[in-house]
Amino acid sequence: MQLRYAFRLYPEPGQRLALARAFGCARVVYNDAVRAREDARRAGEPFPTAGVLSQKLITQAKQTPERSWLGEVSAVVLQQSLRDAEVAYKNFFASLKGERKGAKSGTPRFKSRKDSRQSIRFTTNARWSITGSGRLNLPKIGAVKVKWSRTLPAQPSSVTVIKDAAGRYFASFVTDTDPAADTDPAADAARMPDTDQSVGIDLGLTHFAVLSDGTKIDSPRFLRRAEKRLKRAQRELSRKQKGSKNREKARLKVARAHAKVADARHEFHHQLSTQLIRDNQAVGVGDLAVNGLARTRLARSVHDAGWSAFVHMLEYKAARYGRTLVRIGRFEPTSQTCSACGVKDGPKPLSVREWTCAACGAVHDRDHNAAINVKTAAGLAASACGAPVRPGLVPAQREETGSHGFPPQPCAA
């Protein structure tokens, strides 16, 4: 499976200029590729192939006065930008045909230097390296200082340099690992030995998660706690004159405030998901209709909780460490069924936090009862012989870091 590791970069002033030049050249090549395909579509001609675009937009363009500055950056950066444009069109057409899961992909759009996220990617062909002093040596940029928070488990296949809206720089390394291989026992299997425990999880807003063993994990509500600070920063931004330096300073202040909230939520999800995967051999979790809930009056709280990101972390960590993750259908009546006798008691409004089963008289906490039912529906309850049932592994998503679509926060795997 592919894993990515993100580390903070601290480029020097000259290196920041070189990175800005590389971001701009990659953006121009991407926009030229999108424009060439749009021109072909309007003319009723077939789309130019990647080889034709590479020859025209990079090789030949470098020899013209208008694009001669493309030679100031690594050619690999430009080739990867063309590859990103090609992938964007493939995703768009696959989405139109219904072959791609998830939300519909729109038509590839032109990138702007004012976009909140800029990135470039170096593959092994670029001959980038990590120096003996721990710096990241990038072609035509130099040796950039890296804040290493962990050791890479394998030789990376690529590195993506990212600048986020808050002006921070990150290096995202992509590594290929095999959790079942004997060559990497210390990184995966030995770190999390097998256990006979299993757990069901009920996600919510009052409590972020309630476990089938009765444990309740409070919701940190990072966005709610930072609302006053965010409103004040946003109000200051709205009062600045457009195009002024003071407005840019205020924009950075807003972006850094949002980044602080996102980083705190990201770290909370990582710590909790790692703890659950480490302590349990099998985990059951409900499949929530996040998109539907995000259109209700609870939208802000739903986005603040970040359930989808948390479940995604459970998925890939379960696949990596040999655990079992089972997702329960969203229409499973976990809140309507008595976990003691199994009788379905009917729907209940959200204001009802405790209820008594009419059949057996058991008194249930709504969330704890739902967590027990999630565990039962996942097949993780003890069997007749007392051994827990363990369904097959659910593979995690395997996506290589590209030039867009990746949250630029440090990843604590």
Question: What labels describe this entry?
Answer:
10 helices; 413 residues; single chain; 5-stranded mixed sheet; 7-stranded antiparallel sheet; alpha+beta; 14 strands
What is the first-to-last residue Cα distance?
13 Å
**Overall mean pLDDT:** 87
Radius of gyration: 25 Å
Give the percentage of residues in beta strands. 15-25%
- DSSP, total strands: 14
Overall description:
This protein has 413 residues and is α+β, with helices and mostly antiparallel strands. Helix content is 37%, strand content 17%. It has helices at 13-42, 50-60, 75-96, 222-225, 227-238, 245-279, 290-293, 299-305, 307-321, 366-377, and strands at residues 2-10, 118-123, 129-130, 136-138, 142-147, 158-163, 169-176, 198-203, 207-211, 216-218, 282-286, 324-328, 354-356, 363-365. It has a seven-stranded antiparallel sheet. A five-stranded mixed sheet has the order 10-9-8-11-12, with helices on both faces. A hairpin with a 4-residue loop joins strand 9 and strand 10 (216-218). Helix 1 crosses helix 3 (75-96), helix 2 runs antiparallel to helix 3 and helix 5 (227-238) runs antiparallel to helix 6 (245-279). The two termini are 13 Å apart. Mean pLDDT is 87; it is low at 383-413.
Architecture blueprint of SSEs:
Layout: E1 2-10, H1 13-42, H2 50-60, H3 75-96, E2 118-123, E3 129-130, E4 136-138, E5 142-147, E6 158-163, E7 169-176, E8 198-203, E9 207-211, E10 216-218, H4 222-225, H5 227-238, H6 245-279, E11 282-286, H7 290-293, H8 299-305, H9 307-321, E12 324-328, E13 354-356, E14 363-365, H10 366-377
Helix pairs in contact: 1-3, 2-3, 5-6, 6-9
